[in-house]
Write a structure and sequence with these properties.
- The protein has about 500 residues and is an alpha+beta fold.
- The chain folds into 2 domains: about 260 residues, 3-Layer(aba) Sandwich (D-Maltodextrin-Binding Protein, domain 2), CATH 3.40.190.10; about 220 residues, Dipeptide-binding Protein, Domain 3 (Dipeptide-binding Protein, domain 3), CATH 3.10.105.10.
- Helices cover about 25% and strands about 25% of the residues.
- Helix 13 runs antiparallel to helix 14.
- It starts with 5 loop residues before the first helix and ends with a strand.
- One of its GO terms (biological process) is peptide transport.
- Pfam families: SBP_bac_5.
- This is ABC transporter substrate-binding protein.
Length: about 500
């Protein structure tokens, strides 16, 4: 008989009762902040309530969505998207080029990837859509696959352009929304493609990882997304659920304020990197061998550079570098220079349970080279806020490079002057030129390799570990998947195992 620890028992007691006969229940940590794609589109796309013009398969290749095909003009300054015909929104109105242009115009007016693209006009052109640019921009179709570019019916938006209802074209239509925690949906019988196989579905936002795991184990949820490493091991040892796991383009990394006096020299950032035992941390906290010796994992082959000198663990070399930079141990072992202690604040957030644990391990590793870290575990919003006001020293975060299938989209925003999740107080003209060329569709693998080599040499962010995404699926369900790009959970392919 397995003993349930008090914490787990409390989590189980507080867990919502979800299981309903004939209804597929999905649980994940993401709250539903509102109807607008800019706030909760990641939930709505996973639950197949709404769709984008362009989709992506499990390998990141772009495939048709509400657009059947697309083509750039010879000069690269406009793109024509041919729209799928015979598509209905959930309110019964047809998908038209005017409706698509309106939805994308609303999306572009809000913070997100689309507002960073050099778009000058979005307009209907007969039954198709024309997007005009101020300069060539090769990743545009990939940007249109992002969840904030979901296409809603005109009736979904208020006068200010904010969506107040979820009226999409997906296989499921919303029947109830109880933000921030729950939604209910039913199969949309007028869907343009193959119908969903399960009639009704629910989504529940559950923040605590232990609670999510217990809901899977007890049978109160059919698909539980984003498990903590301890729960993965426990659930894998049992027979209650099937545990799915796949590498994803997400990296655990340390964002560095390169404008900080102690961190402005690339050698200082190299010393911090050398202090980190990546494989030891990954095995202890994430519980799989995923130490990151460069920014992108091998599962992103176009951006993972074979032959790049790997980031290493060498505390002795780290101490030697810091000594060269004028730092010497004080009475308590913490380095000092010109009367200043090498003391930094590492900001992180508990939304992902592995982050505070990893921060504590990194704190000990840095102490080993004489660097004092104070951990500030707070809301994730404090990281971009600290970036903007210049108060951030270091931040430990999990960066998703799969917001669009081509990571150039995330790189463009992270390493722009106002990109608040990537580099801070750092710039490199050669890197910026390489990224601009890649965004314009000029260059290829040599340019990607050169850009990654610059990041590896100067370390404006310090990679720590690569991620695997996990989910627990009821034995009563077949067809579930984990999408490396986190767009779908395979809802439309799922069916009850006894059917």
């Amino acid at each position: 008989m397995r003993l349930i620890l008090p914490l787990a028992l409390a989590a189980l007691t507080a867990a919502p009762a979800l299981a309903t006969e004939g209804v597929l229940d999905v649980v994940a940590p993401f709250e539903i902040k509102g109807a607008d794609p800019s706030t909760s589109g990641n939930v709505f796309i996973k639950m197949e309530l709404a769709e984008t013009l362009v989709n992506a398969d499990a390998d990141g290749r772009l495939v048709p969505g509400l657009a059947t095909d697309w083509q750039a003009s010879e000069d690269g300054l406009s793109w024509l998207f041919r729209l799928r015909q015979g598509v209905l929104f959930h309110d019964g109105t047809p998908l038209t080029a005017e409706a698509v242009a309106g939805a994308l115009t609303h999306a572009r007016a809000k913070p997100g990837l689309l507002d960073t693209a050099p778009i000058t006009a979005i307009a209907a052109e007969g039954a198709d859509l024309r997007i005009t640019l101020s300069e060539p921009f090769a990743p545009l179709p990939a940007f249109l696959s992002e969840y904030r570019a979901l296409i809603y019916a005109p009736a979904a938006y208020d006068a200010a352009g904010t969506a107040t209802q979820v009226i999409g074209t997906g296989r499921y239509r919303l029947t109830a929304l109880q933000k921030p925690l729950r939604l209910e949906a039913a199969r949309f019988d007028d869907y343009w493609g193959a119908a969903a196989r399960i009639d009704r579905v629910t989504y529940q936002a559950v923040g605590r990882a232990e609670t999510r795991a217990l809901l899977a184990e007890s049978g109160d949820a059919d698909y539980v997304f984003n498990l903590d490493p301890a729960s993965v091991r426990r659930l894998s040892d049992g027979d209650a659920v099937e545990v799915l796991s796949v590498p994803v383009p997400r990296s655990l990394l340390i964002k560095v304020n390169a404008g900080h006096p102690a961190l402005s020299d690339p050698r200082a950032r190299r010393a911090l990197s050398l202090a980190i035992d990546r494989q030891g941390l990954a095995q202890a906290i994430l519980r799989y061998p995923s130490g990151a010796d460069q920014l992108f994992p091998p599962s992103v082959p176009d951006w993972h550079v074979a032959g790049l000198e790997p980031l290493a663990h060498d505390p002795e070399a780290a101490r030697a570098i810091l000594a060269e930079l004028g730092w010497s141990p004080g009475p308590d072992g913490i380095l000092t220079r010109d009367g200043e202690r090498f003391s930094l604040v590492l900001t992180t957030y508990p939304d992902r349970p592995e982050l505070p644990l990893s921060a504590a391990v990194i704190q000990q590793m840095m102490a080993g080279i004489g660097v004092e870290l104070t951990i500030n575990s707070t809301n994730s919003s404090e990281i971009p806020a600290g970036h903007m006001d210049g108060s951030l020293d270091l931040a430990l975060l999990a960066r998703n490079f799969a917001l669009v299938p081509d990571p150039i989209g995330t790189i463009l925003t992270d390493y722009a002057q106002d990109g608040d999740w990537g580099a801070m107080g750092w710039g490199n003209d050669a890197f910026a030129a390489l990224i601009r060329d890649l965004a314009a569709g000029q260059g290829g693998q040599p340019q990607r390799d050169a850009a990654m080599a610059i990041l590896q040499a100067e370390l404006p962010v310090i990679p720590v570990a690569w991620y695997q995404q996990t989910a627990a699926v009821s034995r009563g369900v077949t067809g579930a998947v984990i999408d490396p790009f986190e767009r779908t959970i395979g809802l439309s392919r799922m069916e009850w195992a006894d059917q």
